[in-house]
Specification:
The protein has two domains: 1-44; 50-372, Purple Acid Phosphatase, chain A, domain 2, CATH 3.60.21. The chain is globular. β3 (136-140), α6 and β4 (167-169) form a beta-alpha-beta unit. The protein has eleven helices and 16 strands. Helices cover 35% and strands 23% of the residues. The strands form three sheets. Strands 1, 2, 3, 4, 13, 14, 15 and 16 form an eight-stranded mixed β-sheet that branches. The N and C termini lie far apart (101 Å).
Length: 455
Amino acid sequence: MHWLLRVTTGLKQRWQFIAGAIALCCSLTAGVACVSGSHAAQTPAAPYPHTLAQVSFAVAGDVIPHEAVKEAAKAAGPGAEGWAALFSQVADVFERADFGFVNMETPVAPAHTHGTKPFMFDALPELITALKQSGIKIVSFANNHVFDQGQPGFAETREHLREQGMLFAGSGDTAASAWQPVIVEKNGIKVGILGMTRWLNGNRNPESDTAPHVNFFPYPDDNASGAPGMDAAGVLEAVKQARAKCDFLVVSIHWGVEYAPAPKPVDVEMAHKMLDAGATVIVGHHPHVLQPVESYKTQDGRDGLIFFSLGNFLSNQAREYRLGQADKEGDPRDELIGEFSVVRKDYGVGGVKSGVKVELANVGILPVWEENNRNELGSTEKIPVIRPVLMDRVIPALQAQIAELSKAENPSAAQKQELTLANGRLKLLEYRRKLLLERTGNAFLVTPPSSKEEH
């Protein structure tokens, strides 16, 4: 009997302990729920629309290794170091973007070179290295100079690009692979880049579609050689198929008339059709001068963007231009860096837009002037300098320099010369900036990053 009583008492104590533990747990749970509910009440849900993710791009025009450009790179330092110095004043714009892009208008084919001369280019692999070091991750290799060193040079260039991990659009090991977009992905957003050229300098792709090809989209009235290429219907189909492989499509295209301040009407029409077919941004190059920047609303309601021509980025064109010459003579040194972001946005439900969409955002343009001291060589300057600089970073620096020099009550001869040069440079940049924005419009003008000091 005593044994039974002890067992009963023990069981009762255990159940009391378990019940107490359950009660305590429920109390704590309720407390947590209460705190959580209070916190939720104090933190309202993010308003719609809100950005879920984004990826950014910086794009520029033609990189052309004229002999004077090579001399400037050599003077700036050995190998890739010298080439990188030519991009040093703008590199931070590309470095802050997730993906930098330019048109590489040259083969890189030292093993198969036939030499260089006017209108026939070649470069060493150090150029690719310097582009990478300057924040460029993607290049177009679809332009009228890709065959300057023949088919072997065309193949060698692609090998060097691959060896250095540089992505390239518009060329491939076969005709079919060339028309596949380059796909880059960041923060869960897939962006495709589809490249093509409307000019080939009279050259042509191999007859076999299984051989290496550049994407050629010829102007029917200007294709004197009769070189085979894709027609407009085929290009629009390629755009549709490329868009199906990504969330957002960029088209890079080498087109238009050299030194023309406006795009060809047929290119304007084609640009609109490519955007309606699924592209959202078009990056144009080849004219060597700037052309307008256009916003375009697609038939399905998307905001599209067309850089008809970003101008040169690194070249020796208009090297002897002086302030006071005809405006057009300086055009090949007026340049743009374009910026844009691809964003994934949640619009919620019930509004004009609803659900999650991938869209264009944060469009910007940065006016650029290509410095070239050709006129001063042999007099005030001894070392050749060719480089793109950001106008809106150099102009304030010059204004500050002039203000400081103007404070001197008894300036030395050196200070007077420095002040004269600074005033001349400021006048030139302010004038070119005005002409540039008259050409492109200033709707997307943005302030450059301030981290880079002008040297």
